[in-house]
Amino acid sequence: MSVLLDTHMWIWWLVPDSPLSSAERNALDAEATEGGLCLSPISMWEAQVLHVKGRLKLDVPFAVWLREAASDAVVTLLPIDIHVIAALDALPASVHGDPADRLIIATARAHAVPLATRDAAIRRSRAMKIWSP
């Protein structure tokens, strides 16, 4: 089974001292070994914004970190394609106001994969299946 990582889950999985529980980390590690972790390209942009704002501190230049963190060996990038945009268009306006989060939700729906997130608004929306370890 594949899992789409919300931006914060992707970052937390990759950085030390994150708020992930050991159950979450172990389950994500297990998914990764089977090539089951997916990412929306919008998450790479969100990570860059976090880095610029100083909220994602790295020991290496951002470009180096990104090449490793989004490599084929780590995650499968799911395209923002016609299916995702159609799923985005079908989302009710009441489902999360953040455009990046709406794209991530639409990506999960278009690819029929659960979303790993701790975002309370996304979880409350019930707009897609939520992953649990």
Query: What form results from the Cα inertia axes?
Result: globular
Q: Write down the overall mean pLDDT.
A: 94
Which spans have pLDDT < 50 for at least 5 consecutive residues?
none
Number of helices: 7
- Strand-pairing-aware structural class: alpha/beta
Radius of gyration: 14 Å
In the CATH hierarchy, what is the class? Alpha Beta
Order of helices and strands: EHHEHHEHHEH
Range of strand content = 5-15%
Question: What is the topology?
Answer:
Elements: E1 3-5, H1 7-14, H2 22-33, E2 37-39, H3 41-52, H4 62-69, E3 76-77, H5 82-90, H6 99-111, E4 115-116, H7 120-125
Parallel strand pairs: 1-2, 1-4, 2-3
Helix pairs in contact: 1-3, 5-6
Describe it for me?
- The protein has helices at 7-14, 22-33, 41-52, 62-69, 82-90, 99-111, 120-125; strands spanning 3-5, 37-39, 76-77, 115-116.
- With 133 residues, it is of the alpha/beta class.
- It has a single domain (3-125), classed as 5'-nuclease (Rossmann fold).
- The chain has a four-stranded parallel sheet with strand order 3-2-1-4.
- Helix 1 crosses helix 3 and helix 5 (82-90) crosses helix 6 (99-111).
- It starts with a strand and ends in an 8-residue tail after the last helix.
- The model has no long low-confidence stretch (mean pLDDT 94).
